[in-house]
Amino acid sequence: MSHKNTIISYLVNYENFYCDDCLSKLCNINPRQTVFQVCTKLNIIGKINRGVGICSCCGKKKTVNSILKKSHKNCADVNPLKKIRSDKETLNPTKLNKSFNQCGKNFIEIKLKFENTDIKDTFSRFGTHTLGEILTEDKYMKLKDECYRIYKEYMNMKLGLFLARLKQDNDLFYKKFLNPYGDELFCKFKMEQNPLEKCKGIYMYVCNEEIKYIGRVKGNFNFYKRINSGYASISPRNCYIDGQVTNCHINSIINNIGSEVTFYVMPLEDDEEICSLERKLIKENQPEWNIALK
């Protein structure tokens, strides 16, 4: 497919406003100058609109491109990010505090799709190491003496199966291998496909229009990797003391509240801005899940 057709196809499918830099990334067209040249020609021949507006991906005011049926008459004054969802799906700023309201205009919802809930004993499916092998790792050395004294005959058993056996026998020693949320009920979900999934920036979980958690994605990461490969799917290793306690905690809470949770993102490009804004929003909103994880 030619660069021209690739760009037109993308703008038709997603029907939003994209700057040349973001189109270059989203359409895998390099260098960025190629996108500039192609979009300029498409605008001249009347295939696309090209004018100053706010990019739906990075959230910055730039020259943006959209399919012809969209008008840029007032695009400098309207944030097209808000138009991705209907008004009823947009956060109600009157129910949020002032500090968030100042930034809230840039947050948009990305739908979450749940695939499974109430997943139990995830830790038991960890089969990479035996009990004896895991006791050689730094985090588990403190358990070595007790294990060799009481459970010596299980040293060659896969760790997950060993802990599952202890739990079945009501032996609470198994919890010493797990993080504080490693034996919770989990769920599996994912972000629905969205052009913003390849962006980085600030994200938040909201329940009943109350901000519960604020986090950031920076560097080479993006929202897709952070959510779909992080919070949304808990691996057996995540459950252990050297795993991902934050992922386990938040996933277990989301499992309990289910469809009541909504997910919002603010696309940003600059890592320094991302970090400073995250700190500011957490300080001023004091989200419940952030506080619990301190």
TrEMBL record:
Residues 198-291 form the GIY-YIG domain. Signal peptide: none annotated. InterPro entries: GIY-YIG_endonuc, GIY-YIG_endonuc_sf, Host_DNA_Degrad_Endo. This is GIY-YIG domain-containing protein.
